[in-house]
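Why does this matter for the project? Reviewers at the last site visit asked to see concrete outputs rather than summary tables. In response, this paragraph embeds two records directly. Each consists of the residue sequence and, immediately after it, the corresponding structure tokens. Nothing has been edited or filtered.
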Amino acid sequence: MSAKQLRLIILTLAVVLLLWGASERLSRGSDTVTGGFSLSAPAPADVDTISLIKGKDSIVLARQSATAWTVNGRRAALDGVNELLHALHDSAPPELVAQDSSSFGRLNVDGATGRRLRVHGPGQPVREVIIGARGSEYGSAYLRRPGDSHVYLWRGRLATLADRTVDEWRDKRIAAVAPDSVVLVDVERGNDRYALRRAGKAWTLDGAAADSGAVARLLEKYRTVTAAGFATPAQADSARAQRPARRLTVRSARGMSVALVFDSIPGAFWVRRTGGAAPGGETGVVYRMNAWDVDGLTPASRSLKPTAPAKP
């Protein structure tokens, strides 16, 4: 055999081995195969409705204005909606993990167990994807497009956000009052009733000098009043029938900023906003606040009195 023939045989064998290796890699459907999948999510400004559907349960986020969204008819937290819109774009390249329908049940991407995410926008095609079980990596999940047999591993916050309940999407802000705007605070806490009034740069407590540091810390708590959750319809009806355990009214020079009533329950309070022009809060909604947070908003009057000087 000549040297030329030997080189030809070696070259042919090398080509065969390369083709065989490529064929084996692709035929296994390896999870390292990337590409071929993109949500092609629109810009946040081009989205007006986001639907999350699982079985008979559905969550619908709807844009009302550039800064206001609702979730199932209730005011939604804008930060949460923005997180979801960013999560549609935020991911490492998805990895192909399965290529036929036999994997749908195992990866929870079938119609019965998966959560459908639909994104709508005026003049935009509907984007839809089925989000399934969590992947082995933190924050990852399996997903596919309806009608497509390919399943991908998606990395990012999309699955975590899609698992939120309706209450987790709702706006928990009850009120937001700028401390510098406050001129009067009225508190009713059982038999402990008092009024804090601004007197120039100082404050008085029922006509006597108040502890300026304690008042400053109290006013800071009114900057953002946030609930821990919401009452169910039955709990809300019960709360409205009760006599309030506490009341809080905060006023500015322009009028009432916010008025709240508190109904005591074990370890917490039901809170209703009954008036005021401060932003935040929904009319008729009964919020749940932790007891220590309510204590911070309506402290005992003794905590606002100046500390007596220590005796020598």
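We now turn to the second protein, recorded in exactly the same manner.
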Amino acid sequence: MDNHQKGLLLTALGVLIISPDALLLRVISLPAEQMVLWRGLLNILGFWLIVVARYRYQWWRSYLVCGRAGLGCALMFSLSTIGFILGNHFTKAGNVLVILASAPLIAALLSRLFLQERLPLRTWLAIGVCMLGISLIVLDDNGEGSLIGSAFALLAAVGLAGNLTLARSRPEIDMSPMLALSGLITAGLAWCWSGEILLPDAMDIGWLLLLCLVLMPAGFTLIQQGPQYLPSAEVSLLLLLETIFGTLLVWLFLSERPSNQGLLGGTIVLLAMLTKSGLDRRKQLVLRREARL
């Protein structure tokens, strides 16, 4: 398995793991600031336990090698988390998803500006087609919303793209341990805002533990390793699949059936991703044949 295939596998698996995020956010009945606070607190523990399991007694070294880029990743991931949760609180979810769908384009632009990465035309085309598909999914929910909600959604998109671009700037370093620090930043900012911690009821505690202690740490640890093998734009492009899988889960468990237009949008995204993956694979095979000659 070459590095490109490994990056695709790690990222795709991570996306599958975090797909219930939207569903569980619907189920948990906490105010937005408390959701941010608890998510940050539990993510500290969840991500740290994964770091200890991977690096054993040398776990602390995995933080030291990340340097300033790692601190930037932690901050960007925190901003993305806060922006996503608060964006959904202040405006319609459809508006948030439309704006968040711009993350691959933002990542591509950041990579081009700061990392001088030249993306092939097929990647730019896939980004455009996927954004079209995502727009179709949420078009029925594109009400006016609020300016502050849209601003938080844009913060989530920029934070996501910035995190992956910073990770790509040091592909030889595993930046995933810094996500535990991100939890600390997230919880600290939420505490400064709310000034208190509300104890959730028993049902909410169970969902919080599943989402923030298991699914998010496991999924984003895999996703955070994607930029070691793939351009950040490709990693964020794969993250758009969370919208498709998350929508299907909400449909299955909460009986919120997408419109026919939404189903069409999901099909467009999946076909764009499959086509791009096929073209990437074909390109790799051609390069291998040329290398043997």
